[in-house]
Amino acid sequence: MVSEPTFVVIGAGQAGGWTAKTLRDEGFDGRIILIGDENFPPYERPPLSKEVLLGEAEKESCLLWPAETLDEANIEMRLGVRVKKITPNAHELTLEGGEKVQWDKLMIATGGRPTTLPVEGADLAGVFTLRTVEDAEAIRTQITPDATVLVIGAGWIGLEVAAAARKQGAPTIVVELADRVCARALTPDMSQWVHELHVRNGVDIRYGMSLNHFNGNGRLQHAVMSDGSTIACDVAIVGIGLTPNVELAADAGLDTDNGIVVDERSRTSHPDIYAAGDNASHPNSLLGRRLRLESWENAQNQAICAAKAMLGGRDTYAEIPWFWSDQYGTNIQMMGLPEDWNEIAVRGDRDAGEFVEFYLRDGKLEGAAAINNPRDLRFTRRMMMSGKIFNASELADPDVKLQKLLKS
Amino acid sequence: MSDVTFHNALKKDQLDEDEAIQVIIEGKEVAIINLGGEFFAMDDICSHAYASMADGYLEGECLECPLHGAQFNVKTGKAETPPATVDLETYEIKIEGDDIFVGLPNG
Description:
The complex is a heterodimer. By secondary structure, chain A is of the alpha/beta class. Helix content of chain A is 25%, strand content 30%. In chain A, the strands form seven sheets. Chain A has a five-stranded parallel β-sheet with strand order 3-2-1-7-19. In chain A, strands 9-16-10-11-12 form a five-stranded parallel β-sheet, with helices on one face. Chain A is globular. The relative contact order of chain A is 0.12. Chain B is built from no helices and nine strands. In chain B, strands 1-9-8-4-3-2 form a six-stranded antiparallel β-sheet, with no helix packed on it. Chain B has a three-stranded antiparallel β-sheet with strand order 5-6-7, with no helix packed on it. Chain B is globular and about 35 Å long. Chain B starts with a strand and ends with a strand. Chain A binds chain B through residues 18, 44, 64-65, 69, 296-297, 300-301, 304, 322, 324, 374-375, 378-379, 382, 403, and chain B through 18, 55-57, 59, 64, 66-69, 82-83, 85.
């Protein structure tokens, strides 16, 4: 008896959800099994550190699709279940508890987990990381006007948590090891703009500081910094980055190197196993290098491309990275990963808080960042794809339409 | 009585070629699009998250949401790319002289 073809997806977040859905949308008529360790159907995480943390949106608003969509697609959901082991040559995996599941093709979309600090007191009540719906709901109940909130790390998660805490009226302190916010993603003057945004909203940001340990009597009371200073706090959120979940893949003998190594169609070093999303390192032909992206858009689009490849599609995946954040009603967006630029064109008004910065290298657009101007920022992608040479003074002139510059 | 009422929404010279603009008709946000000199109308609020489609750029026959990049065909309202999966409503357009009228269903 020939059994029905079975594709299994490990991980039910943005990348896993889109893989499963796309397999069905593209006409796969075998079994699709979606295994997730969280007790929640596929959802997107950006609102967790924004609307959900503020209590402005319920967790259901994060769901990728209503339950009936997944039902109609006949996707077999195994939620609250962890995979213990993948056995590639047997085309099999083992769940915790021992059950074995056979697969013809496998997607590993296990994402990542918050990087934690191996310090004393990290397990005290009141110390959190933020990745899941459960984390967001737990933190939300703790952020009140009489709770002092300490954020470790001035990256995106840390800054969004700080913004939410201020909006709830909580005294908020951010400590950061580097000398500016989002040092990996932003140019120094954009870091400065975002720094000022937080200071205006009452956040106390301290740079060049790292944590030594937390202390408290069962419940967090202080953070002790490496310079010996002490910060009294009721809640601490550690936002120091993401660690990709590569252990299942590595233990199965798949190549890993800062993520699971995949090709431009998301195939790992095993021909029937794929990976996509926060845990996958892919070659990006547009950027001319291999990289692992932790973004909402990458998780969606890489997974869609991967699902098509699992069905024999020949499309390849490479996009110019795009990322956004919302803090205090201010929308911050970035296009590209500008590293090597020698000219900046500012379009709009920095002081009024509505502008785009274009980063140019000899007139070639390397990337852009925008405050409260998502419209122009998204158009930047087309401008970058064109490979055209732009004139900085024209880019900086709001009376010159970007469409016109692209066409000219 | 007809099922559709046409509302005077905009002057032609208020909307350049390959641009979109939001108009409010009877409290409803509608995007009017000038696609190569031909005018179209559809719901202005993206079906995925709250954003004005008229703030987006045209890509071929599609208007791209400025927030997450979902594209909708301006002629049919069809959600052509993720993250949107629900189509937008489109509306009939009537041109009289310099005036653009948008036909909204009654009731």
